[in-house]
Design goal:
152 residues, 6 helices, elongated, U6 snRNA binding, U4 snRNA binding, mRNA splicing, mRNA processing, PRP4-like
Length: 152
């Protein structure tokens, strides 16, 4: 065994205070408060903290616009889910044609066309397709009346 192993570890001496610690605690708390107050004063003097002007910014308007846009998007999606669209591809193409949309986009299948018609109807409204069909029928009737032979 070596000499370093035989030696007992040195004991730490504890400090013994006689009397109350209240005064030292008050001094410590007072120093912390002074440092915090000094920091705020230094920030105000540097111009980083602006308390004197009293100006405020209204954040609610911008948040409410975002909320309205989000709610409108959710409402449009909800309406799109509820709109009934035919599974017949010819009827879907006719509906897209009646609304003035391209019949087929590049690489688009029948299911994609149905979804596109559904999304267009959710924006325009499901009654728009019915109105356009009524207008087409009226146009056909007026053309048929013009084609009739008249005898005087």
């Amino acid at each position: 065994m070596s000499d370093s192993e035989d030696a007992a570890p040195a004991m730490k001496r504890t400090r013994v205070y006689y009397g109350s610690l209240e005064e030292k605690e008050r001094e410590r708390l007072g120093a912390d408060a002074m440092r915090g107050g000094d920091a705020v004063k230094a920030g105000i003097e540097a111009g980083n903290i602006n308390i004197s002007s009293g100006e405020t910014m209204d954040m609610e308007e911008r948040v409410s616009e975002r909320q309205q846009e989000a709610l409108a998007a959710f409402e449009r999606r909800r309406r799109a889910r509820q709109i009934m669209v035919s599974t017949d591809d010819a009827e879907v193409k006719a509906g897209l044609r009646a609304l003035g949309e391209p019949i087929t986009l590049f690489g688009e299948g029948p299911a994609d066309r149905r979804e596109r018609l559904r999304s267009v109807l959710s924006v325009v409204g499901p009654d728009a397709l019915k109105k356009s069909r009524r207008e087409e029928e009226r146009a056909k009737r007026s053309q048929d009346e013009c084609q009739q032979t008249w005898y005087h």
